[in-house]
Amino acid sequence: MAGERPGEDPIRDILKGHVVFGPEIDGRVRQLAGSSPSRPVIDLLATVLWAWPWDGRQVLNPVGLATVLDRLADLAPTS
Hints:
Distance between the termini: 29 Å
Number of helices: 4
Strand order of the largest sheet: 1-2
Mean pLDDT: 84
Order of helices and strands: HHHEEH
Radius of gyration: 12 Å
Strand content: 5-15%
Helix content: 55-70%
Number of domains: 1
Shape: globular
Largest sheet: 2 strands, antiparallel
């Protein structure tokens, strides 16, 4: 199962403060995860991050990922 070591689970790494997709994207992820405690939203966010194409530690199409994160933030219920 992914997530036990750094590099295995992008969302867990980001929430623990590791730089994964870069400061801007990681900050958006932390903000979205922190503002919406809804488990389905966190699960969807984790799926997006896990499936998003990236090469090593460089996200491919960062603008597209930022757009998806912004849209998730628009749809996510807030606490």
